[in-house]
Each structure stands twice: as C-alpha cells, then as structure tokens.
Design goal:
two-stranded parallel ribbon, 4 domains, single chain, two-stranded antiparallel ribbon, 10 helices, alpha/beta
C-alpha cells in the first residue's frame, strides 16, 4: 500500500491511497517512477497513473462479469424457462379472473339492448370487446371511448372503416404488415373516391384508393413508435425462409419445425387435361388422388 498526497497550488492537499500499485502494469509503474522534477509535472503524471489504474481495474471487472454471464448463458435452460414463464403467466391470469368473477355468486344477464342502454355496466363485466372495424362504433354506447382499440390486419382495412374504429378510441395499436397484399378497392370505388380527393387539397395519405389504414397511418405519422413482431409460427421454415430473405432482411425468427420433411413443396405433373370450366375443387381432388395413389411425374424442390 502506498499513500501519496497531491498539493495543488500549495494550498490544498489531497490524500490518495493506491492499493493496486504493486500489481500495476509495468508501463504504469515506470511512468510513476519516472515523473519529472517539476511539481505540476509530477501532479499530472500522478493523476494520469490513477486514471490508468482505475480503467485497468474496471476493465478487469467487466471481463469477469462477461465471463460469468457467458457461463450462466451456457448452462441456462431456455425451454424450461419459457415453460415456467408461460405457466406462471397463466396462473396469474386465472387468479385475476377468479378474483374478478368468482366473488359474485350470480352473474348479471344482459340483452342486446344493454349495449346502448346500459353499456357502462356491461363493459365493466365484459371489458374486452371483439368486433369488426365496421361495427365497433355501433357496439358501444353513445360517445363511449375505449381505453385501447387494437386493430389487427390493418393492411387489409380501408381508411374509412378504420377511421370509424379509431373514433371510439383513447389509444390505438395498429397491427399489420406493409409487405403483405393491401385491401382491394374496386375500380368503380377507386374512380369515385379519386374524384372526391382531387376536389380538395389533402395529404396523399388520405387517398382512399391508394392506401390501407396501415399505410395511411405510417405516412401521416412517420415518427410513430414501431415494433417488429419477429417471431414466426406459421409456415414451414423453408417457405418463410424465402420471404425472410426477400422481404424482411432476415429479421424474422422462425420458430416452426420441419417435422422430418425436407421438401415442403411438391410439383406433380398430370398427363390428363381438364376443361376450362373445371372448378378448383375438382383440380384439388385430382391432385389428392394422384399424390396418394398414382403420381405420374413428381419432382421435389
């Protein structure tokens, strides 16, 4: 242990205790011993030494922490943790439901008229409403505002019905995918709405024929908070893998299994021809028959 004192401008003396000096690196120790003769030079060199010793010790602590975390991650059972998390989440959910509803021996019965005559009582008993964007406004009492309106598949919602749903929301969560196919607007409707749009000086985000609810919102509010839902549970890994590379810059986390099938798609070629009036059901039936019994030519990819 070495104790030193730094005197600044011959007025103030600051005591320092350097415990790790004996274990300091050679350059740091040499720098301390080779200090200049001037008082200011010695003070600057001492401060520099203290800084170096501090950062060396700090880096050592961080390396130890990183090593400990790596060991913990290597031994961590993620599947067991997810299972436990899911079970605990469900227990909390069921406990909340029991606390809310089991206290009442008899549940109040509601009629269709309760939606607009006694909606405040109804919404306390049933706080979650499932509805389409077309009818949400009529499912609530007059001038009622939901705490949150969650609009799913917003890339398939037109801006008129989407605006109706948002008219009864204090807060909104818009869920959708701009890389999926948008809502389909008939040509006659597009022509009619374009004439209305061109008669007013409006933001292009309000052009009905060119926008879904999702695209309109993203154009109007470019700085709005966004979250990418990365986990994918639907398609075969090789199918979604193509979409992931082509459209999502490999940001998706594919959680589906291949289920011991290497090739997710089959091409089956038939020698028989079918009339153009054949329905898709007929074609599918023939496909199933041939795929199960007598495929003439099959190629996997």
């Amino acid at each position: 242990m070495i104790k030193i004192k730094i005197k600044i401008k011959n007025k103030l003396t600051l005591p320092y205790t350097i415990k790790p000096l004996a274990n300091a690196s050679r350059p740091a120790a040499a720098e301390f011993k080779g200090a200049g003769n001037g008082l200011l030079d010695r003070e600057l060199r001492t401060i520099n030494l203290l800084q170096r010793l501090y950062y060396e010790r700090k880096m050592e602590e961080l390396r130890e922490q990183i090593h400990a975390l790596n060991v913990r991650l290597a031994n961590f059972r993620f599947d067991d943790a997810i299972t436990k998390y899911t079970e605990n989440s469900m227990k909390l959910f069921k406990a909340k439901l029991a606390d809310r509803y089991l206290r009442h021996q008899e549940r109040q019965l509601y009629t269709w008229e309760s939606l607009w005559k006694d909606f405040n009582t109804f919404i306390k008993e049933y706080p979650v409403i499932l509805s389409t964007t077309h009818s949400l406004r009529s499912c609530a009492g007059a001038n009622y505002l939901f705490d949150y309106v969650i609009m799913d598949e917003a890339s398939q919602v037109d801006i008129v019905t989407g605006a109706l749903a948002l008219s009864c929301a204090k807060n909104a969560v818009i869920v959708g995918d701009l890389k999926q196919l948008p809502n389909v607007v008939p040509e006659s409707t597009a022509a009619e709405t374009n004439l209305i749009f061109e008669n007013f000086s409006l933001d292009p985000a309000y052009r009905y024929a060119d926008n879904s609810m999702l695209s309109s919102i993203t154009k109007l509010y470019q700085d709005i908070p966004r979250t990418l839902l990365k986990e994918h549970y639907r398609c075969h890994p090789k199918i979604i893998g193509f979409c992931n590379q082509k459209f999502y810059s490999n940001e998706l986390i594919v959680l589906t299994d291949e289920e011991d099938r290497e090739q997710p798609l089959d091409i089956i070629m038939f020698t028989h021809s079918y009339p153009r009036v054949a329905t898709m059901n007929t074609v599918y039936t023939v496909y199933i028959q041939y795929s199960l019994y007598s495929p003439i030519c099959q190629h996997q990819f």
